[in-house]
Design goal:
With 334 residues, the chain is α/β, with parallel strands linked by helices. It contains 11 helices and 14 strands. Helices cover 41% and strands 18% of the residues. Bound molecules: UDP-4-deoxy-4-formamido-beta-L-arabinopyranose.
Length: 334
Amino acid sequence: MAILVTGGAGYIGSHTCIELLNAGEEIVVMDNFYNSKPRAVELIKEITGKDFKFYEADMCSEADMEKIFAENDIEAVIHFAGYKAVGESVREPLMYFKNNLGGTFVLLECMKKYGCKKLIFSSSATVYGIPETVPVNETFPLSAINPYGRTKLMIEDMCRDLCASDPEWSIALLRYFNPIGAHASGKIGEDPNGIPNNLMPIIINVCTGKQAELKVFGNDYPTADGTCIRDYIHVVDLALGHLAAVKSVREKKGAIPYNLGTGNGYSVLEIIETFQRVNNIKIPYSIAERRAGDAAECYSVPDKAAKELGWKATHTLEEMCRDAWNYIKTNNGK
Ligand code: WQD
């Protein structure tokens, strides 16, 4: 029996594949390289010394998905594949609905046909919308503030309806906060195709000279230093959270949400200061207008995952900043 990892060549997917292989799990990986690179597949094998089957496939293709399930005995699916750029989703909502919702529909149909009823879904803290208060736990109201977030929420709803219709389904809905950092080896890390949207890859682009300066989106928020606060989590901690969820879906039924965060909030200026200090580098930045849709603060209560998954993030913000930059230095800023 194998675990199918959709989007397994991506940032979080590749780090998760490494931890699954290190834990002795058999995996099958698929990716269409929309936001990843073929080299990542080879690096997973190089880092772990383990082999696995890979399919260059599109989750929206029934034929592609049918082939994977027909050729492999899939026990469970970890579903990362999906578009994830908030700004792009606002410009191209139909592209997001077709890919993220349509692709997940094809996947779930295939899983049902082959009797595979264990799913770990890459959800997001974005399903909390702009939370009224912080920290955020899993009972907080859910809402969408952009098409990307709406696809995450709608897929969660699809999963809840599926479990209500068939009690044999086990689905872990993992709500990520802000993943940053890279594998300690420096061989894999965040390597988005195109122009990044998130804070850390933009800091990296500024430090490698690809972008002139970082624009801090607003310093007039009701926070200590006026900049937004987020729950940054090391991508390896996030990967280990998926490993813990595999154990959970083997034991429990139903659709269960878990926050994967550290429970600590850091401001944009704190990220800048920490990154500069641990990497001995200067980040040129200026204060710009607020970005529409940003919440002043969003950070987690991670207690449910600790109690029910036996998982807790352990990496510090310093390690996140050090590892993020180490990946770039190891790859000569390519
Ligand atoms: C973090 C902070 C910005 C860029 C998004 C998605 C969420 C998840 C993580 C997938 C904010 C500030 C950023 C810049 C800045 N993605 N910032 N200048 O918005 O918290 O969450 O990514 O699951 O679903 O919504 O992350 O990294 O974009 O922003 O000042 O050039 O950095 O205002 O306060 P965000 P982010």
